[in-house]
Amino acid sequence: RTINWSATNGGSFAGDGTSQTDANGQSSINYTVSSTAGTTHVLTATDSGDNTINGNSETITVTLGAVSQLTFEDQPNSTTPAGDDLGTMTVRLEDAAGNLVEDDGTSISLTISDGVTLVGTTTQSTTDGVATFSDLYVQEPGTDYTLTATSTGLDADESDAFDIPRRVITITADAKSKTYGEDDPAFTYQITSGSLITDVDLS
Length: 203
Fold this sequence. Notes:
This protein is mainly beta. The protein is 0% helix and 39% strand. It contains no helices and 21 strands. The strands form 8 sheets. It has a 4-stranded antiparallel beta sheet with strand order 3-1-6-7, with no helix packed on it. Strand 17 and strand 18 (157-158) form a beta hairpin. The protein is rod-shaped.
């Protein structure tokens, strides 16, 4: 006899979702549960010749796996002038199926590509499975930079690429005058638009 199988809340059956009974009237099928933790499934087997002959499984609940990988949840801004904040970035702990694992205190570090310097607090600890980075910036202009999130024993993740264009400022020289024979006055100026990168001076 042919048995038709169905399930609540997704998942997938092997083949076309049917199976045949054996000489003892028994039938089985391989079933893959959803990858989302917390999902519940009930499987139903129905005789294809008489749909009044059916039965349900016990409830199957998908549980979290062990934390195994990192994933960027909030990415750096796609374009940020040199010296400006890259935005608030978050990195989450996940099991192999991509479910959030809400562990506290896991240390996650960020590094940047191309040998440039990532300025700010580059290591944070997770709260409810998420580490937040909010004070990072890059001084060197460039394109297609990426960040890499790492934590001991876990698979790393790489951010989307982003660009750091040059910082634009306008400098206006102060008006000066002198009397013939006197020394030249000292050159002074004002930044009339934009601003300098933190801890960087003009010379």
